[in-house]
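hey so i finally got around to running the thing on that chain from the lab meeting. sorry it took forever, my laptop kept dying and i had to restart like 3 times. anyway pasting the input first so we r on the same page abt which one it is
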Amino acid sequence: MDWGMKNRMSQLIKDDGRCFFLPIDHGYFQGPTHCLEKPGETIEPLLPYCDALFVTRGVLRAAVDPVNSKPIILRVSGGTSIVGGNLANESVTTSIEEILRLNVAAVGVSIFVGSAYERESLLNLAELVNQCEDYGIPVMAVTAVGKELEKRDARYLALASRIAAELGARVVKTYWCEDFDQVTCGCPVPVVMAGGPKCETALEVFEFVHDGIQKGAVGVNLGRNVWQDPHPAAVAKALRAIIHENFTPREAFDLFNSEVK
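ok and heres what got predicted. didnt touch it at all, straight out
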């Protein structure tokens, strides 16, 4: 691995081999999102706990302080919205020159395996890898499923994650699922977890995150489970304890409760 690539990867995945990414890129397809209407205010109390931000260039420039910033994973795919015809019909939206200008640690692009736009999204990933490898910039592939939530099972996610790695992604973001070790065991690059099933309590979030870590994930890329909680900083602190301090779900929940009293 070249020095630049290794340096950027070390910004994302810490010395313990773990990571906590905080995504605030949701507005690129769904506009002002609940609790993310003012992203700069949303992330301010959460920055001490996360290792990197996943964000679009527009919000990066408008809402993220460039001085003493967390490492940035730049969302570079888009072109569709929740009111459009098909969320899978994305293109790469950001040039390599812009990626370099913003001095990011990595870039992220969605792939839609099994959709009508499977080929286009996979070629988006491949072309982005071709460009970014020349400059030592890691690409994170996001195994998006659009509105087809029923595809979030181990067999499907293992397929999508392996294809992303085969095409050159340095990191794969995918959903937690039952039998998550089937996903991580078949993917030769680091896997980070997005959300899992709909959770009613913080303890349920801590349980699926802990399960995924035990089954091979290097960390999480969690947004709405954090900043839509009534106590987002407490959730973030507890998640960091699971990821970097090996807390159990119950220990993390006790920490969470101590923060909200």
